[in-house]
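[step 3/7] fold_predict: job queued, chain A
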Amino acid sequence: MQRVHNFSAGPATLPLDVLQQARDELLDWNGSGMSVMEMSHRGRHFMTIAAQAEQDLRELLAIPAGYKVLFLQGGAHTQFAMIPLNLLRGRASADYLDTGDWSLKAIAEARRLGGVQVVASSAASHYTTLPDPADWQCDPAAAYFHYTSNETIRGVEFHQIPLPAHADTPLVADMSSNILARPVDVSHFGLIYAGAQKNIGPAGLTLVIVREDLIGQARAGTPTMLDYATFAGSDSMYNTPPTYAWYLAGLVFQWLRRQGGLAAMAVRNQRKSEKLYAAIDDSGGFYRCPVAVSCRSWMNVTFTLADAALEPVFLQQAEAAGLSGLKGHRLVGGMRASLYNAMPEAGVDALIGFMSEFGRSHG
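[step 4/7] structure written:
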């Protein structure tokens, strides 16, 4: 078997140790005589798995008391609706930062359910920068302040938490593609949500970390399955949850703890991204990253070739060299290398070596 270096933005690469453990436990988890995917979600075996996963996540993120951790379905797209349904709490509107395509999707969905004020946008730069906080137009009466911490399509990331201008406005973050990549002070947030398929585990699971005082105030008529209280009151077991994805996420949490936790991952992730950005910037213009240096993503490195006609050749030869998933998003083209926690540094080194050789051959 020859595994490739998988740079896909999601579903994304998983740690090899985790895949091997899941393989070994596939038919018989911990002497239970059955696979995790066969277990009752209310049985003692899966309840043990679920509790351990939540405990490990709480320890990794140092989640304070007063927050619920929910293991849900539906991806970030469902959260785009659940958030206004639950957090508007009778107020006229919420504040949103527009920093890219995923921000725009969240804004569009929220507008279907209530008022939205876009406090700032980086559209004028084609989403290659982040809005200057000095220019934000925040509403002191906003129900919450929403931002996307990492925009996977164009490769823009917040490296500090963009706190709202008004301290009592709950901060809401879509962390789908950079959760667990570095330490974060959860106490600053009213709610954090993340689809699992980028930096946590397989597709099908969505994490929500929500402050307890924000639960139980959903608007009248909110469907049962879109009310956070439904899941907060049932330990995420109101219906059958995505059990196997939950189990695999738990294995990833254990793997992260063995790596030294999020502080160690931050050092590794910053080093990986800086090496790749240096290779791009030092290529004499053969490769180019359009994103401003101050907000370049650690997770999703986007770049183009000076000669766009060479890009299909680059992708074809990279695939042949065992470097998979480098094609940029269909909205922007170019290349994108996703360097999530599970991408080993050796994979980044292999990509840099290939880029160097490709530049020499075609420059």
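[step 5/7] annotate
The chain has nine helices and 14 strands.
The radius of gyration is 21 Å.
exit 0
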